[in-house]
Every structure is written in structure tokens, then in C-alpha cells.
Amino acid sequence: MEEKETNIYEIKKAQIKESLCLISYELLSDPIRGDIIKHKGVHYVHIDLEEAFKRLNVFLAHIDEAYKVFSTNKTTITELENKEQTEKYTVVGFSITGKEESRSVILTGVKEVEYGYIKFDTPKIMLEGGNYLYLEEISERINDAINEVIAYLGGKKAPEPVQSSIDFDEMDLDVFK
């Protein structure tokens, strides 16, 4: 996402933890330009934000060399997403570093292994003029994730669960047993 001078902040980090979103953003307006604000969301993330993060899983797997045979050719992202290996990877956050032409992304995620999960960060991937094989695709999907994070900051959240009734007939309500 290209930041314009009219924007009042720029997303620097976002993480989904326990269905809530943790966000760091830099203020772009004077007199507090450059200040970093950390926002801990208290509302559950909307499914669109979860999906935007999920669409990054394929890059985490690719950078971890999960596809071996497919890691150096131009197999489409859609084909890689459908590979079984992709299911073992989950992006839980990202960080944006640098400005304009030196802007880079670091993905944070987990890989499912036999005995649990391994958490790791990818190396920095330049989003402008870098040599990453899927540069256009990752840039587009990072921008989508950033836009969903901005929407979350603007109030887009998961609907509150509604409980329509309680069935007391099935409950043992005698607490003095």
C-alpha cells in the first residue's frame, strides 16, 4: 500500500493473537510525526482480517523451502497454496520496515512439526525492486492485510456472538450436592 501524505499513520506491525489484533503504527502528522503507537485490540478480528493473514501462509512455506521442487520456478501461488505442505504453516503477524523504495516485510509464523510448533520470522523481503520470486503477489497480499488492519482500527470486527436461549432441562442445577 502506498502511503500518501494525507494519511495520518502507517502500519508498522500487526499480529493476531487469541483472535485479537495487536498493532503498531507510526504517526505521520506534525508535530508528533514519527511517534509509534501500540494498539492492543479488545474486539475479535473480522474473518476478512483472518483470511488476509491466511493468504500469506504460502509465502511463509515458500521461504522455508517447503516446496523444494517448486522453490525456484514460476509455479503460480495458487498452485502452491493447494499443496499439502502449505497446511503446516500459519502466519500470525508481519512487520514493515524501511521507507518507500527500501520498504521490506518480515513475516512471523509457525510451522507445525511432529512434536508441536516452531515459531520463526522470515528474512526481510524487499517490496520494491527486490528479487523475491513472488514479489508482486506478496506485495499485493501484504497491502490487503494492511488494509484489513486499518479497517480493524476503524472498527471492523467480528460480530458479537448471540445466545438465543438456554436449555435448563438438560442442566443439573443442584449446586448443593
The backbone outline, from C-alpha atoms, is globular
Terminal CA distance reads 61 Å
Computed over alpha carbons, the radius of gyration is: 20 Å
Unreliable residue stretches: 1-5
Percentage of residues assigned to helices: 10-25%
The run of helices and strands is: EEEHHHEEEEH
Please count the beta strands (DSSP E, at least 2 residues each): 7
Major sheet description? 7 strands, antiparallel
User: How many helical elements?
Assistant: 4
Overall pLDDT confidence: 88
Structural category: alpha+beta
Give a concise summary:
With 177 residues, this protein is of the alpha+beta class.
Give a written overview of the molecule.
- By secondary structure, this protein is an alpha+beta fold.
- It has a domain at 45-157.
- The protein has helices at 47-54, 57-63, 77-81, 135-153; strands at residues 9-17, 20-27, 36-40, 89-97, 104-113, 116-121, 125-126.
- Strands 1, 2, 3, 4, 5, 6 and 7 form a 7-stranded antiparallel sheet that branches.
- β1 (9-17) and β2 form a beta hairpin.
Q: Which features would summarize this protein structure in a list?
A:
177 residues, alpha+beta, seven-stranded antiparallel beta sheet, 4 helices, 28% strand, globular
Question: Which SSEs are present, and which pair or pack?
Answer:
Layout: E1 9-17, E2 20-27, E3 36-40, H1 47-54, H2 57-63, H3 77-81, E4 89-97, E5 104-113, E6 116-121, E7 125-126, H4 135-153
Antiparallel strand pairs: 1-2, 1-4, 2-3, 4-5, 5-6, 5-7
